[in-house]
């Protein structure tokens, strides 16, 4: 385990100029604010938040899982990217299932009241709805349950972003040829609200990783965050990640059936507002 702590970034929130009383709307606490305020997550906190990276490379023989060569490149790229975005990065290598659960629970029990958000990056083997620790697997839903609203109240109403580099099955994407390349009155918030799950691949499909350069998804994610943060909203950035993975990568392998394969990430959003990483 090693930890990078960087939490010196402060960014002022951006508010649209008030034009008149007809532009004022109530937010969930009943106070008045401009329409732009209720559709944009605040980032004017002392810190952007914790970025927890779990990087599993080596697995017990009984799991049948191979060494994930190239994942250390991904971990280093993610750590560098989120430090630049103002996050306190915690990088944990080769975690058992029990340790993964304990780490998530520990984060959930922390006070995030001075943080704008929470980020978790999982780099491991996986299958449909599960993620592997070094000694076995756990349902993803079980792993992240402790971060949900009723368990982690200091993150209620704040974006909780999960980036998951793992297979979600064993099916290959063969690709195909183309011709071209409100008025809010309640203070209650659903416990599933304000989550984003960015999966490296679609359900049921294999996720590709280069042993020298890292995975297609993490390469594209880090490049896009570095290029577009402060300019584009998060979902716009993730659309560009999808585009890059879909159009710029194709497997090259000497193994029968492994050559010329494609991949498309899958973004599942329960975010309720726009999220902009602050301009550095």
From TrEMBL:
<dbReference type="InterPro" id="IPR016129">
    <property type="entry name" value="Caspase_his_AS"/>
</dbReference>
<keyword id="KW-0963">Cytoplasm</keyword>
<feature type="region of interest" description="Disordered">
    <location>
        <begin position="13"/>
        <end position="37"/>
    </location>
</feature>
<dbReference type="GO" id="GO:0031264">
    <property type="term" value="C:death-inducing signaling complex"/>
</dbReference>
<dbReference type="Pfam" id="PF00656">
    <property type="entry name" value="Peptidase_C14"/>
</dbReference>
<keyword id="KW-0788">Thiol protease</keyword>
<dbReference type="InterPro" id="IPR015917">
    <property type="entry name" value="Pept_C14A"/>
</dbReference>
<dbReference type="GO" id="GO:0097194">
    <property type="term" value="P:execution phase of apoptosis"/>
</dbReference>
<keyword id="KW-0053">Apoptosis</keyword>
<dbReference type="InterPro" id="IPR033139">
    <property type="entry name" value="Caspase_cys_AS"/>
</dbReference>
<dbReference type="InterPro" id="IPR011600">
    <property type="entry name" value="Pept_C14_caspase"/>
</dbReference>
<keyword id="KW-0645">Protease</keyword>
<dbReference type="GO" id="GO:0051604">
    <property type="term" value="P:protein maturation"/>
</dbReference>
<dbReference type="GO" id="GO:0030218">
    <property type="term" value="P:erythrocyte differentiation"/>
</dbReference>
<dbReference type="GO" id="GO:0030216">
    <property type="term" value="P:keratinocyte differentiation"/>
</dbReference>
<dbReference type="GO" id="GO:0006508">
    <property type="term" value="P:proteolysis"/>
</dbReference>
<feature type="domain" description="Caspase family p10">
    <location>
        <begin position="185"/>
        <end position="279"/>
    </location>
</feature>
<comment type="similarity">
    <text>Belongs to the peptidase C14A family.</text>
</comment>
<dbReference type="InterPro" id="IPR002398">
    <property type="entry name" value="Pept_C14"/>
</dbReference>
<dbReference type="InterPro" id="IPR001309">
    <property type="entry name" value="Pept_C14_p20"/>
</dbReference>
<keyword id="KW-0832">Ubl conjugation</keyword>
<dbReference type="InterPro" id="IPR002138">
    <property type="entry name" value="Pept_C14_p10"/>
</dbReference>
<protein>
    <recommendedName>
        <fullName>Caspase-3</fullName>
        <ecNumber>3.4.22.56</ecNumber>
    </recommendedName>
</protein>
<dbReference type="GO" id="GO:0030182">
    <property type="term" value="P:neuron differentiation"/>
</dbReference>
<keyword id="KW-0865">Zymogen</keyword>
<keyword id="KW-0597">Phosphoprotein</keyword>
<dbReference type="GO" id="GO:0043525">
    <property type="term" value="P:positive regulation of neuron apoptotic process"/>
</dbReference>
<dbReference type="InterPro" id="IPR029030">
    <property type="entry name" value="Caspase-like_dom_sf"/>
</dbReference>
<keyword id="KW-0007">Acetylation</keyword>
<feature type="domain" description="Caspase family p20">
    <location>
        <begin position="47"/>
        <end position="171"/>
    </location>
</feature>
<dbReference type="GO" id="GO:0005737">
    <property type="term" value="C:cytoplasm"/>
</dbReference>
<keyword id="KW-0378">Hydrolase</keyword>
<dbReference type="GO" id="GO:0004197">
    <property type="term" value="F:cysteine-type endopeptidase activity"/>
</dbReference>
């Amino acid at each position: 385990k090693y930890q990078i702590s960087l939490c010196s970034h402060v960014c002022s929130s951006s508010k649209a100029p008030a034009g008149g009383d007809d532009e004022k709307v109530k937010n969930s606490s009943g106070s008045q604010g401009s329409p732009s305020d209720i559709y944009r997550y605040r980032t004017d906190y002392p810190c952007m938040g914790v970025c927890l990276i779990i990087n599993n490379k080596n697995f017990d023989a009984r799991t049948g899982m191979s060494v994930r060569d190239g994942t250390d490149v991904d971990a280093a790229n993610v750590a560098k990217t989120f430090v630049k975005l103002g996050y306190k990065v915690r990088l944990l290598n080769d975690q058992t299932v029990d340790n993964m659960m304990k780490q998530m629970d520990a984060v959930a029990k922390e006070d995030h009241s001075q943080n704008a958000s929470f980020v978790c990056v999982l780099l491991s083997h996986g299958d449909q709805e599960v993620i592997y620790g070094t000694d076995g697997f756990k349902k993803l839903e079980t792993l992240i349950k402790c971060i949900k609203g009723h368990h982690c109240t200091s993150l209620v109403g704040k974006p909780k972003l999960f980036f998951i580099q793992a297979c979600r099955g064993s099916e290959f994407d063969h690709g195909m040829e183309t011709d071209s390349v409100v008025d809010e009155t309640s203070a209650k918030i659903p416990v599933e609200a304000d989550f984003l799950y960015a999966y490296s691949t679609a359900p049921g499909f294999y996720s590709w990783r280069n042993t020298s350069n890292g995975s297609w998804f993490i390469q594209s994610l880090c490049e896009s965050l570095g290029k577009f943060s402060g300019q584009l909203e998060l979902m716009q950035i993730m659309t560009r990640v999808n585009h890059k993975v879909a159009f710029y990568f194709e497997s090259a392998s000497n193994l029968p059936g492994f050559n010329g394969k494609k991949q498309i990430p899958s973004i599942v959003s329960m975010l309720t507002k726009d999220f902009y990483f602050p301009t550095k």
